[in-house]
């Protein structure tokens, strides 16, 4: 099977601050690739570069075999990439329904078609349906996270970049979020999941890449990782 | 009561300027000092069309809309897009305002020109006060625009995208919104609006090149009262300024009007710096 | 050619302007015609007003556009005094300056609490008010018709003729620019620039942002008042038209064109604005278009104005002549040392802070002792940054107490905390532009070893002593960080690693009792990390209290005497490296293990303890 995303020797950061030095990995359709590591390792910077928000200093990003390294962020959405940023970035002043509708911006579909997708989001995340007319800012963290994911899914992506969806959420909610990720994976969606919560990520991951100070220190199939001790070493800089 | 109507009409002019400010603020997070001057250009084009060339009203409206829309687009590309920080943007938009001021004086001279109202000029009596159709028209236009644009911002995709941009630019980009193109479009739209409104504003203020700065400043007070980015706020703010100005002129003399408006500005900025409907974000280091 | 240039450059920087000033002073004596000398006079007056704007805009970073109003205030003060018979020019100048200063402070106090746009528009509004104020006091001021009835100016009793008055104007202008220059090249100029670049940085260096901004605004008002008085006496008539938006725009255009952040830029800009457009009446019609054009071009392209272009040419010529080239090799001298520091104990006791609904810190407690490195670590959202910002005074705690040594700082503003002896670095190095490495490092001494602005302007011995000490200390600290050979480079031109070291040098130059490092290791390569670690050890050994907020675990392990782990706003563990690494709660926070499964995790890890895992 061909990977939907190929990342080769990625180097990126903020301004002239280099956070990611040399990162390479693949993401396959219908699979969850977990990108793990401590904070400051460069996980978010990697996602930002993949989504087009950050400039790539060197290296390439290929999607469906085509080089998208220079493609601006808003165009990548049209090509099938959706990025759910960390920190539940929803539009607080707009209602839940408006947030979802805006997620379908690139689809150029009629209102009716979009509303159908919105309804299916309400099926996947019932709590959103209950709060459809409320401003997004009035919801709890977990609900906002669901909304952020729902809005990204409205664009009907084939590749979903998820940045720390568990951030600040109670373990029960985290479990729910991961269940959804499992569901999505089974529909053929490729997911690149960045997480600090290792256990949660391992519960859905098919492949694991661990970063430390901007470099890959561990790259393996999830089934080959017997215990979390290996990960712990990677985390605490023993490798 | 007559003062009430003329004050409201004057306030409506400030509302229209503030609406222009808001459109630009929401889409580009910029303050366009030249907004009022663009409206002045609209009044001059209206004069030329209606008085000099004696063209039909609709044609003049189109002329004014297109002319100012083009000017606004050029301004965005030349004076706003290449400039990185807000302070410099204020300098460049002030430059555009000055340049337009100079150009209009060169072309049309510095004497105020009378722009005829395309409707009737007969005074009418309303609620015990005398007013003119153009004053009512200005008021109606201001209210209609606030309602209309609020509707657009909530019900259309473009509107949602614009509100999104003003709240979180990156998140909007990640929804597929071409932020730069939309910003240019919104800017051009604010120019188009300023142009066509020249046909309403001109009859009330006369076509005067030097009025731009005063309108710009008082339109800003409207913005400060109502809050940056709020359309209903612009309505309340603008009408307040118009009423304060007119009533002060009546009771204390015209040389005190601007001082009164200035006092309102200082009080609002000290007491409620974000305006009535704006919101302040907590500062983070 | 080269040697001529070298000689030229070896002259002190004030020689050329002084010579120019003397030439201009003597022009009428040398036979210059009346109309040209009048133009030069007006250019000097404009230059005074512009220099005031430069101080606010170029140095303090405040777009305050009210100069025209203060100019008017000065003019009418002098005019009314002259009308009443007080014709001595020195008295008029003093009064006009004082009135303008008063107006400046009065409008500055509310204005400076506002954001950028609000300040600009509020100050610009003042220009709109000038005709109205004049109309209200119409009787005395002549309202829209202008002020007449002025007597010719006198100096020490004798009336000044046109030529003598010209000289007075030039001398006043030259004296003011000398004051400006002395102020701007001194440490106060650097402080203003720091304020412009980042008020946060300035306050963390002990500068009261509000006071400094007000000072900049007020000092900028003074020359406008002087200019007004000189203007009134030029024609012995004041027309209100001279103070409108056209003038205000011309002042801004002159400032931008000449370069707002330079002393002499005001002269360059004013000369062009005054002498250029006034050459023919045709130009008068186009004047607004020119002003507008200059503002647009200046704002877009010429950030820094013509003087910046001039400086670029000078540097190019310098390089061709071999001047200013870095010749000294980087020194790899012996062990650097610091004089003993009286470190203060930092105690954070039960501190809580919530932002909206988010509880960032929850009864967090930690202690950092003198002569020790305390590392603060924790996952994202743990509250590390909030903690740091609270210690520095950027946030106030909802509950709890923060003490440094014997002083309680929980309610103190950032600059007060800095003055207790706290220094910090920032996640992104913040350094003012257009200053050298030496100047940047020396700026760390600004609030600890103080010198008044007056002493700087007058170049008093007390100031000279401090300025010398600034250089000596800065050299010493640069040697400590191995950057002596870069002392004359423009600080912002350095790569990130060097800029971080510069920030560290700046933080330690005033021998702070507590130093806070905010993720100072990020973006550094191996060598730079080594040097940083050495420096931190030197600091610790000298007795300072060092707090290190870090992600780089290896650095923490090698440096920290004590590690404090924050998670979800609470301190969950403290101890040395060995304790932390095996602490179950730490592991569960970092690895996201659900609480309750920690025992299982411990077991697994215990089981693998003595094996080495093969990793790709």
UniProtKB/TrEMBL annotation, chain A:
Q: Does the keyword Transit peptide apply?
A: no
Indicate yes or no for the key word Nucleotide-binding: yes
Q: Which InterPro entries does the record associate with it?
A: AAA+_ATPase, ABC_transporter-like_ATP-bd, ABC_transporter-like_CS, BCAA_Transport_ATP-bd_LivF, P-loop_NTPase
In terms of CDD domains, this protein maps to: ABC_TM1139_LivF_branched
In the record, biological process GO terms are: L-amino acid transport
Can you give the residue ranges of the ABC transporter domain? 5-238
Q: What SMART domains does UniProt report for this protein, alphabetically?
A: AAA
Matches recorded under Gene3D superfamilies: P-loop containing nucleotide triphosphate hydrolases
What are the UniProt keywords, alphabetically? Amino-acid transport, ATP-binding, Nucleotide-binding, Transport
Instruction: Mention one GO molecular function.
Output: ATP binding
According to its UniProt record, which protein family does this protein belong to? Belongs to the ABC transporter superfamily.
**UniProt name for this protein:** ABC transporter ATP-binding protein
Q: Which organism is it from?
A: Rhodococcus qingshengii
Traced from the root, the source organism's taxonomic lineage reads: Bacteria, Bacillati, Actinomycetota, Actinomycetes, Mycobacteriales
Automatic annotation (TrEMBL), chain B:
Report the locations given in the UniProt record.
Answer: Cell membrane
Transmembrane regions: 6-26, 33-51, 90-108, 132-152, 182-200, 259-280
Membrane topology, as annotated? Multi-pass membrane protein
Q: Quick one: signal sequence residues?
A: none
GO terms assigned for molecular function: transmembrane transporter activity
Q: Name one GO cellular component term.
A: plasma membrane
| Major localization listed first in the record, in broad terms | membrane
The family database entries (Pfam families) matched by this protein are listed as:
BPD_transp_2
Protein family according to the UniProt entry: Belongs to the binding-protein-dependent transport system permease family. LivHM subfamily.
- PANTHER family per UniProt: ABC TRANSPORTER PERMEASE PROTEIN, BRANCHED-CHAIN AMINO ACID TRANSPORT SYSTEM PERMEASE PROTEIN LIVH
Spell out the protein name for this chain. Amino acid ABC transporter permease
Origin species, per record, is: Rhodococcus erythropolis
């Amino acid at each position: 099977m061909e990977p939907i995303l190929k990342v080769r020797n990625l180097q990126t950061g903020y301004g002239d601050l280099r956070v990611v030095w040399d990162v390479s990995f693949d993401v396959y359709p219908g699979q969850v690739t977990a990108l793990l590591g401590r904070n400051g390792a460069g996980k978010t910077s990697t996602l930002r570069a993949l989504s087009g928000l950050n400039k790539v200093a060197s290296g390439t990003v290929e999607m469906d075999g085509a080089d998208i390294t220079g493609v601006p962020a808003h165009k990548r959405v049209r090509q099938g990439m959706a990025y759910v940023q960390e920190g539940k970035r929803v539009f607080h002043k707009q209602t839940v329904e408006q947030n979802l509708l805006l997620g379908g911006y690139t689809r150029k579909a009629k209102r009716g078609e979009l509303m159908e997708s919105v309804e299916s989001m309400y099926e996947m995340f019932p709590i959103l349906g209950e709060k459809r007319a409320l401003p997004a800012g009035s919801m709890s963290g977990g609900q906002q996270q669901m909304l952020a994911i729902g809005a990204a899914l409205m664009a009907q992506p084939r590749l979903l970049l998820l940045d720390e969806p568990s951030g600040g959420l109670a373990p029960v909610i985290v479990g729910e979020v991961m269940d959804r990720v499992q569901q999505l994976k089974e529909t053929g969606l490729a997911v690149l999941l960045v997480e600090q919560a290792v256990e949660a990520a391992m519960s859905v991951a098919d492949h694991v890449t661990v970063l430390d100070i901007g470099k890959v220190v561990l790259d393996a199939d999830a089934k080959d990782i017997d215990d979390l001790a290996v990960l712990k070493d990677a985390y605490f800089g023993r490798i | 009561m007559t003062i009430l109507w003329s004050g409201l009409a004057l306030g409506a002019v400030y509302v229209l300027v503030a609406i222009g400010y808001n459109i630009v603020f929401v889409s580009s997070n910029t303050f366009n000092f030249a907004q009022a001057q663009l409206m002045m250009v609209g009044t001059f084009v209206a004069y030329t069309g209606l008085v000099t060339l004696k063209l039909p009203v609709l044609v003049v409206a189109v002329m004014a809309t297109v002319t100012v829309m083009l000017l606004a687009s050029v301004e965005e590309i030349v004076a706003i897009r290449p400039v990185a920080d807000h302070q410099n943007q204020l300098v460049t938009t002030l430059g555009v305002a000055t340049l337009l001021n100079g150009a209009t004086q060169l072309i049309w001279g510095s004497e105020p020109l009378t722009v005829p109202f395309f409707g009737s000029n007969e005074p009418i009596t309303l609620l015990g006060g005398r007013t003119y159709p153009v004053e009512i028209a200005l008021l109606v236009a201001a209210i209609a625009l606030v309602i209309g644009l609020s509707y657009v911002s909530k019900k259309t995709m473009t509107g949602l995208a614009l509100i999104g941009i003003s709240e979180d630019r990156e998140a909007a980009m990640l929804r597929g919104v071409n932020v730069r193109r939309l910003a240019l479009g919104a800017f051009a739209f604010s120019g188009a609006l300023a142009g066509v409104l020249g046909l309403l504003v001109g009859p009330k203020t006369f076509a005067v090149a030097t009025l731009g700065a005063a309108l710009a400043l008082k339109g800003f007070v409207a913005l400060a009262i109502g809050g940056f980015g709020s359309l209903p706020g612009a309505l309340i703010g603008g009408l307040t300024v118009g009423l304060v100005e007119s009533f002060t002129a009546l009771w204390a003399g015209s040389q005190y009007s601007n001082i009164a408006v200035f006092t309102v500005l200082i009080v609002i900025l000290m007491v409620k710096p974000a305006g009535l409907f704006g919101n302040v974000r907590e500062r983070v280091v | 050619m080269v040697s001529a240039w070298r000689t030229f450059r070896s002259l002190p920087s004030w020689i050329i302007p002084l010579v120019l000033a003397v030439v201009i002073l003597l022009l009428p004596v040398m036979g210059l015609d009346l109309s040209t000398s009048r133009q030069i006079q007006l250019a000097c007056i404009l230059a005074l007003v512009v220099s005031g704007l430069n101080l606010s805009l170029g140095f303090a970073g405040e777009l305050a556009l009210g100069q025209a109003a203060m100019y008017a205030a000065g003019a009418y003060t002098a005019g009314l005094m002259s009308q009443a018979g007080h014709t001595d020019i020195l008295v008029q100048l003093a009064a006009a300056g004082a009135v303008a200063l008063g107006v400046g402070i009065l409008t500055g106090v509310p204005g400076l609490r506002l954001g950028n746009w609000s300040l600009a528009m509020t100050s610009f509004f003042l220009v709109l008010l000038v005709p109205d104020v004049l109309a209200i006091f119409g009787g005395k001021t002549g309202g829209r018709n202008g002020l007449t009835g002025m007597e010719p100016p006198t100096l020490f009793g004798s009336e000044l003729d046109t030529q003598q008055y010209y000289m007075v104007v030039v001398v006043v202008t030259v004296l003011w620019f000398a004051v400006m220059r002395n102020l701007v090249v001194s440490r106060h100029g650097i402080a203003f620039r720091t304020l412009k670049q980042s008020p946060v940085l300035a306050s963390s260096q002990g500068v009261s942002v509000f006071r400094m901004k007000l000072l900049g605004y007020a000092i900028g008002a003074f020359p406008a008042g002087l200019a007004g008085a000189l203007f009134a006496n030029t024609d012995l008539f004041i027309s209100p038209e001279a103070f409108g938006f056209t003038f205000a725009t011309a002042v801004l255009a002159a400032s931008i064109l000449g370069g707002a952040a330079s002393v002499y830029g005001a002269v360059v800009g004013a000369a062009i604005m005054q002498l250029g457009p006034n050459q023919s009446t045709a130009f008068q019609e186009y004047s607004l278009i020119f002003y507008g054009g200059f503002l647009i071009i200046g704002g877009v392209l010429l950030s820094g104005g013509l003087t910046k272009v001039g400086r670029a040419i000078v540097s190019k010529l310098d390089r061709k002549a071999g001047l200013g080239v870095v010749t000294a090799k980087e020194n790899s001298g012996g062990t650097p040392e610091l004089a003993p520091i009286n470190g203060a104990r930092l105690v954070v006791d039960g501190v809580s802070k919530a932002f909206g609904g988010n509880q960032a810190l929850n009864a967090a407690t930690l202690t950092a002792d003198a002569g020790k490195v305390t590392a603060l670590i924790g996952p994202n959202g743990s509250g590390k940054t909030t903690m740091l910002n609270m210690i520095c005074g950027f946030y106030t705690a909802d509950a709890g107490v923060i003490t440094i040594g014997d002083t309680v700082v929980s309610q103190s503003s950032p600059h007060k905390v800095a003055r207790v002896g706290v220094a910090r670095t920032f996640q992104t190095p913040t350094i003012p532009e257009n200053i050298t490495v030496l100047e940047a490092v020396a700026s760390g001494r600004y609030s600890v070893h103080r010198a008044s602005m007056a002493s700087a302007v007058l170049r008093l011995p007390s100031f000279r002593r401090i300025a010398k000490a600034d250089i000596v200390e800065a050299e010493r600290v640069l040697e400590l960080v191995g950057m002596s050979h870069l002392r004359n480079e423009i600080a912002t031109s350095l790569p990130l690693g060097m800029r971080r070291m510069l920030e560290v040098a700046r933080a330690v130059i005033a021998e702070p009792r507590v130093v806070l490092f905010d993720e100072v290791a990020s973006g550094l390569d191996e060598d730079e990390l080594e040097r940083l670690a050495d420096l931190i050890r030197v600091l610790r050994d000298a007795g300072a209290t060092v707090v290190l907020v870090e992600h780089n675990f290896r650095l923490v392990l090698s440096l920290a005497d004590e590690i404090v782990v924050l998670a979800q706003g609470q301190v969950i563990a403290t101890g040395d490296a060995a304790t932390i690494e095996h602490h179950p709660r730490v592991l569960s926070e970092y690895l996201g293990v659900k609480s309750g499964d920690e025992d299982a995790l411990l077991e697994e890890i215990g089981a693998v303890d003595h094996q080495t895992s093969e990793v790709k």
